[in-house]
Write a structure and sequence with these properties.
The complex is a heterodimer of chains A (555) and B (469). With 555 residues, chain A is α/β, with parallel strands linked by helices. Chain A has a seven-stranded mixed sheet, sandwiched between helices. In chain A, strands 8-9 form a two-stranded antiparallel sheet. A two-stranded antiparallel ribbon of chain A has the order 10-11. The longest helix of chain A is centred in the last third of the chain and has 37 residues. The termini of chain A are far apart. The N terminus of chain A is likely disordered. Chain B contains 16 helices and 15 strands. In chain B, helix 4 runs antiparallel to helix 14 and helix 7 packs across helix 8. The relative contact order of chain B is 0.13. The longest helix of chain B has 38 residues. Chain B has 469 residues and is α/β, with parallel strands linked by helices. In chain B, helix 8 links the parallel strand 3 and strand 4. The chains are: A alpha/beta (555), B alpha/beta (469). The interface between A and B is large, with 226 and 226 residues.
């Protein structure tokens, strides 16, 4: 079947000519094509007015039938309840919904439609998250029973394919980072960052310096987990603020380093997208004091094949396989954090490690200096399989192309956004950002009263995911942080910028309407945010809601 | 080939003409001009030492399938290994929902863009709360061991006390995760772990030893039900009472799939419950199907305020029949307060909570009750058949739910040898306990659920008979 011709969108030779048009012409063309007045899409999110599943119950209905013990089994063992002592027999059945299968399926399909996943939308918005395309082939493979129905403790001989995938993926990540050793046990990026805090802790414990060294240094533009996880590991955290150019203040950093320092846990480029060209100087300062250096590479998209953590002197780093290496986020997990380190820190990695003897792959548990575990069993190796497949599909040149295009996309989008009224880009004037940019809508807020949260809420009316503003605290006022990784086409970038421009125009013309947004989303406007902070009103479950809110009303 | 431009189906702007046009738009000749931000001395000059690409999807699929075919799955074989990652049946409707592109590809969009995701989360919390008989349920994270450690830290913050008493039968693997979170002794926020003795015949906690160990420095008493070794702990009420009398919290580790039949932690008076939702509709994924939950009493706000994981609350809207679900008291998390937050939170296991929501909704109260009855009946049937084999002894009886300890000392066989021989017969034997619990000798932990039929159980029994003969 061939697609009908689309006269408005030139194809073939026309497309090449079209490649020469300027961004401004392109935005104008899209506006003309899609709707008079420049509104990009006449979008409305699905809104099903769906009750909660707990409100839908019809006593007696069944969603799935469960196998019953065979007659011979029952004859042999008798009433199963007799094996449960009276005090441990449940008295009142759980108040779960009772529904037939289609009704349950339909409910959750409707909820899926009320979720703007990346496959449908544009997650250019989700800066610091690298929301890239996750190939469907990988999803098919990860659901295969030889991936999904494996027990972690089945014999190594029956897991050779999985272990080879994990071992080889680890080797690739070592090449990409320049590090010597790897674990794929952590269940997410922050978990890998926590692993680092524990590995550094074990290193200094083994050296007998743990009582002396109890301070970890991070920077305010590093991810919150770079501050929170060393605290959980038991360290005092020192946070370095940016200098006037947005770089972590080198003098303040030097002043923070002492004989008490464990190390640093910092990002580069930071959330601002600015690459710190003196990063090796910071590492030298740490090493001079006998401390260690870790770099958070949750977002490595802009530097794949261009810069390696080890080459800047770092002792350890991590990657989020569900960001840079394409595993999907699945509504915030399950995910995989890859933690990599130098030979010096390798003895402390969690067990088991995957090893290869030239013929067979093994799970190695006997590592006496290991920190032990950060996660049970083996890890979320679904993510490793996807990352492995993705790296195999890209190869060395493909990975560099990923980095180049993500950096090019970001700078192209930057050019479009900096032309939008009310948008500014703080820090490091004259320096280009790599994979993302932290912008400010402070001007827009001052001139119209419309702030970044209002724009955030309005964007969804155009079928575009709300942008990531900033982690807390907001050092940049009224922040937003797009990251247009290699997945997005020039049309996608143009459309995203046109949405921001549209909302900016609205702010100057009809601010109240923007502030009342969203107007076309799946959820209606939240008006009772105070309930979220009030113990008498917050309700984390339906039963709590009935007790606290319904119960009070009835009285 | 070298002259052919690299145009990749996942990188639209790799088309040279588009790339050139974008560069022109930026007034530069190449992306190199942007990469000047990275000084020469920090640039990687080489070519990454990774294999050349397998470009065509069909070729990549062939390559991947060859690797996957080197695995033998629990569908290829009969699996009787559990030990914290259990093979229950996953209804097809569960996979249908979590394979939806919207859910698979969603990330951290807020309530307006991702309303459905938020509602599904709240429904998960609500249904798990019903199973547990507890009002407060947080957004799950990595796995049971992780949330047990976090619960201990939570108890330490709430009580200001440094010591936690733990049942001696705790899973050694979980314990390794707990120790990582509880920090070495020299740290000022270290949580001291102290183990309560257990009855070698039944697995239950030794209450005399518990009494002796309790004191005003104890933050919490932690027990598991069913215990790691499969037995049902029947003294939950007494454990809670003793803990409370000493001013300590009671923390229950629970496998929620048992709660159609077993008394829930809320009814026993537990202050906090934790455990794994893997049994609620997750494939095993070599352990990747695990996801740890924390639930708590909500009659005192301190439990929510010290809960390390994200909390989602239901609120009403101005529109009739339209609910809003949003994150509550977010300021206390590490996202809100960095190192000043309670513990830390990160990308967790969102897709699994949606799977569990669908699972609990299709199972309903009757499904959980029947599943419990079948697990108990079939596991006891398996134990009976295995126990009849000369030299084989079933330990920690008679109260267990789906897992039980099988001792081979009387047969003079090692678990390793038995499992090797079983594997040759297409069976994954139970988890080898000989290193984890040397006091149980050559024992293995077997798991039999509603997944296994009578015929499959009998196949196991005759294979073990054959192996030991």
């Amino acid at each position: 079947m061939s697609a009908p011709p689309r006269p408005a969108e030139p194809t073939g030779a026309g497309a090449a000519a079209n490649a020469d048009e300027t961004a401004a012409q392109k935005v104008a063309r899209l506006g003309r094509l899609r709707r008079e007045g420049g509104v990009l899409r006449d979008y409305h999110a699905p809104r099903w007015n769906e009750p909660l599943i707990m409100e839908m119950s019809n006593p007696g209905e069944r969603g799935v039938l469960v196998p019953q013990a065979e007659d011979a089994v029952t004859a042999a063992v008798g009433d199963p309840h007799r094996y449960v002592p009276e005090c441990m027999r449940r008295k009142a059945a759980p108040d779960l919904p009772e529904l037939s299968q289609h009704q349950v399926l339909r409910h959750y399909l409707r909820l899926s439609q009320e979720t703007l996943g990346m496959d449908l939308g544009s997650d250019i918005s989700e800066g610091t998250c690298t929301m890239k395309y996750s190939p469907k082939l990988h999803e098919e493979l990860v659901r295969h029973h030889r991936m999904a129905d494996l027990h972690p403790w089945q014999d190594e001989d029956t897991l050779q394919g999985l272990l080879e995938i994990v071992y080889d993926c680890g080797e690739y990540l070592k090449a990409i980072s320049g590090m010597d050793a790897v674990t794929l046990q952590p269940g997410g990026g922050s978990h890998a960052v926590f692993t680092n805090a524990c590995v550094m802790r074990a290193y200094f414990e083994a050296k007998g310096e743990l009582e002396q060294r109890h301070e970890m240094i991070t920077t305010i533009f590093s991810h919150p987990c770079d501050a929170a996880t060393p605290n959980v590991a038991g360290f005092k955290v020192i946070t370095v603020m940016p200098d006037e150019n947005g770089y972590p203040d080198l003098e303040a950093f030097k002043a923070a380093v002492s004989e008490r320092t464990v190390g640093c846990m910092i990002t580069n480029p930071e959330d601002t997208g600015i690459y710190n060209p003196q990063i090796d100087k910071y590492v030298e300062v740490l090493h001079g004091a006998g401390a260690l250096a870790f770099t958070d590479q949750a977002n490595a998209n802009g530097i794949l094949g261009f810069a390696r953590a080890r080459d800047a002197g770092f002792d350890a780093c991590h990657f989020n396989l569900h960001k840079t290496f394409s595993s999907p986020h699945g509504c915030e997990g399950p995910a995989t954090g890859a933690y990599l380190c130098s030979e010096k820190l390798a003895p402390y990695l969690p067990v088991p490690l995957v090893t290869f003897d030239g013929a067979r792959y093994h799970l190695e548990f006997d590592r006496p200096e290991s920190i032990g575990r950060v996660r049970g069993f083996l890890g979320n190796w679904m993510g490793v399989m996807r990352a492995y497949a993705w790296i195999r599909n890209m190869g060395p040149d493909g990975l560099r192309e990923v980095a180049e295009i993500s950096v090019l996309n970001n700078n192209y989008l930057d050019r479009l956004l900096m032309a939008v009224r009310g948008v500014s880009r703080p820090y490091a004037e004259g320096h280009r950002r790599l994979d993302q940019v932290r912008y400010s809508l402070e001007t827009l807020k001052e001139e119209t009263g419309v702030g970044t949260e209002d724009v955030h809420d309005r964007m969804v009316d155009f079928g575009i995911q709300s942008f990531w503003m900033s982690h807390h605290p907001w050092v940049v006022p009224e922040p937003f942080t797009p990251e247009p990784c290699e997945t997005y086409s020039r049309d996608d970038l143009d459309e995203w910028a046109a949405v921001i421009k549209k909302v900016s125009d609205e702010a100057y013309e009809q601010a109240e309407s923007v502030k009342a947004a969203p107007h076309r989303s799946s959820a209606v406007k939240m008006t009772r945010a105070e309930a979220l902070e009030d113990p008498r009103q917050w309700a984390f479950t339906w039963r709590a809601y009935q007790r606290k809110v319904r119960g009070r009303k009835e009285r | 080939m070298a002259d052919t431009p690299f145009i990749h189906p996942y990188i639209p702007n790799s088309v040279p003409a588009v790339k050139q046009a974008m560069l022109r738009e930026l007034g530069i000749d190449s992306v190199e001009e942007i990469y000047r931000e990275i000084p020469e001395r920090l640039r990687f000059a080489g070519r990454l030492d990774i294999p050349e690409p397998i470009l065509a999807e069909r070729d990549l699929r062939r390559h991947m399938m060859a690797l996957l075919d080197r695995n033998t799955s629990a569908v290829d074989c009969l699996n009787f290994c559990g030990a914290g990652c259990w093979q229950h049946y996953v209804p097809a409707v569960v996979d249908e929902v979590i394979n939806r592109a919207e859910f698979v590809s969603a990330y951290c969009g807020w309530l307006y863009s991702d309303h459905g995701k938020y509602v599904a989360r709240f429904e998960f919390n609500s249904m798990l709360g019903e199973l547990l008989d507890l009002d407060g349920v947080a957004n799950p994270i990595y796995d049971w061991g992780d949330v047990a450690g976090r619960s201990f830290r939570m108890a330490r913050r709430i009580t200001g006390r440094p010591r936690v008493l733990i049942c001696g039968t705790v899973s050694p693997m979980r314990l390794m995760e707990i120790r990582t979170l509880c920090q070495p002794e020299v740290m000022p926020t270290h949580v001291k772990l102290d183990f309560v003795d257990w009855d070698r015949a039944s697995g239950r906690m030794d209450l005399e030893d518990l009494r002796a160990r309790l004191g005003d420095d104890v933050a919490a008493v932690y027990w598991e039900n069913p215990g790691y070794l499969g037995f049902i702990e029947t003294q939950g009420e007494e454990i809670v009472e003793l803990a409370h009398k000493a001013g300590a919290l009671a923390i229950a580790g629970v496998d929620p799939v048992t709660l159609g039949v077993l008394t829930p932690p809320g009814a026993l008076g537990a202050d906090i419950a934790c455990g794994d939702i893997q049994s609620l509709g997750m494939h095993m994924h070599a352990g990747g199907g695990c996801s740890g939950f924390i639930a708590f009493r909500d009659d005192d706000p301190v439990f929510a305020q010290e809960c390390p994981l994200e909390l989602y609350s239901l609120t009403e809207s101005e529109a009739p029949g339209e609910w809003i679900v949003a994150e509550a008291i977010a300021e206390r998390t590490s996202y809100g307060s960095r190192d000043q937050g309670v513990d830390w939170v990160g990308t967790a296991s969102g897709l699994w909570t949606i799977a569990a929501a669908v699972y609990m909704a299709v199972m309903g109260p009757r499904g959980f009750e029947e599943l419990g009855e079948t697990c108990i009946a079939r596991s006891h049937y398996a134990a009976r058949l295995l126990g009849e084999i000369p030299g084989v002894e079933i330990r920690l009886t008679p109260a267990f739910f789906k897992e039980f300890v099988v001792g081979f000392d009387g047969a003079g066989a090692t678990v390793a040898a038995v499992n090797k021989a079983l594997l040759e017969r297409g069976i994954f034997g139970g988890r080898d306990l000989s290193a984890e619990f040397p006091e149980l000798g050559q024992s293995a932990l077997y798991c039999v659920t509603e997944y296994h039929s009578q015929e499959e159980i009998e196949r196991l029994a005759s294979a073990v008979t054959e192996v030991l003969a």
